[in-house]
Amino acid sequence: MKILVLPDIHGRQFWRKPCENIDQYDKVVFLGDYLDPYDFEDISVQDAIDNLKDILLMAKDNDKVVMLLGNHDMPYYNKMYYGFNAYHHRHSTMHHKDIAELFKAHEDLFKVAHVEDDVLFTHAGCLSTWLSYAFEKKYDEEIDLNELCLDINSLLKDKDGLLKLYMYTHVRGGWDPFGSCIWADISETYWDTANILSEEQRQYPIYRVKQIFGHSLQLKFKNQKLIKKKNGELKLVNDGYEFGNHLEFRNCKMLDNAHAYELDTETFTVKAL
What angle do CA 97, 103, 107 make, to 5 degrees? Predict the structure, then answer.
């Protein structure tokens, strides 16, 4: 299969041109985080909302399109999840009501995990440690990917499941022992299972499961310098930035680099578009 993969959007437009050729692909998978743009990219909240509306319009008319939820989407998507914390990074409190209504009107289009041709798609990647905690199962042997996907998506149904999705570690500013599939940092995914499985098994964050995810942005700022503000405080200023390359290791591909990607599931290879 040939799949168009669209990592974290955050109001960006890079998805548009590849989707003009949507008929060339068997599936189109958005990896989540449609809103909460970065300050350095000069994208307004309203621009990001309008961008999401266009994505939803396309998704409603084409069953090829899969829309996953990311950590920045969940506070808008689910009222209970939003209430877990008084602060969500870059969250728009001013536009929260309108965005929440937009998600509510299209909630059937969204899910947390998707499986296509033996490849698992989530926003941040699945850790075997988190899965074992969330579902009290062992993930160090061959597993049924479709069953796993159903388990993960079922977490949206109640408070206990939402709390498991809300798990994130000190790497992301939290206190949990491991991050969920919408929160796990790339560093956690890389070291997952390193101390608990055999030498053969530890090659895979989930044993023998191929994964595609985004979330951990590869970014490099150019010409950073400190300037002194009028009040005497020092401020770090960045003169431009560039996105890094996607990361590949073991059975994982992390694609959050503001590019669209073409995935060949037969060879499990990706190409930046």
Answer: 145
